[in-house]
Design goal:
Helices cover 35% and strands 26% of the residues. With 149 residues, it is of the alpha+beta class. It has a single domain, classed as Aminopeptidase. The chain has a five-stranded mixed β-sheet with strand order 1-2-3-4-5. Helix 1 packs across helix 2.
């Protein structure tokens, strides 16, 4: 297995996984819109996508968005998406992606990586915690929905 940063030539394969990721979170499948969304992210360079390739196929991805911490006055990365094709789960793909994200964050001198996961996703929580991620016990996080998803 090989992990690397996705480029435009990986758009079709990553878009399929991104569409599956969205369906996992109860969104309707829309491969064309998924591809357009990722194409725009790559074109504008406003996210960083890492993928794992095995036997010539992309089997997992993670997408990071840049942000900043005002208190530390440093960069942070929001690990917004992580998805592994069902056939490749429990084979170390997610761990490779998380390690790539961590290496990238360190190289860009980020102060931290933040992420969110469903409270029912205990497998992901166990993985994150095994890699040193800590559940935030100090802050409540809120969101304001502006449009229907």
């Amino acid at each position: 297995m090989e992990v690397f940063q996705a480029r435009f030539e990986h758009l079709d394969e990553v878009s399929k996984l991104f569409d599956q990721y969205r369906v996992f979170y109860q969104s309707s499948s829309n491969l064309e819109a998924a591809k357009e969304f990722l194409q725009e992210r790559l074109h504008k360079k406003d996210s960083t996508i890492f993928v794992v390739q095995d036997d010539g196929h992309i089997v997992g991805f993670t997408q990071l968005y840049p942000s900043f911490s005002s208190v530390s006055m440093k960069r942070i990365w929001i690990l917004n998406d992580l998805f592994v094709s069902p056939a490749w789960r429990n084979k170390g793909v997610a761990k490779l992606l998380l390690r790539a994200a961590e290496d990238f964050a360190r190289k860009t001198e980020a102060v931290r990586i933040t992420l969110a996961t469903q409270t029912s996703n205990t497998a992901a929580q166990a993985l994150y915690e095994s890699l040193g991620y800590c559940k935030d016990e100090a802050f409540y996080h809120y969101s304001l929905r502006l449009v229907a998803a």
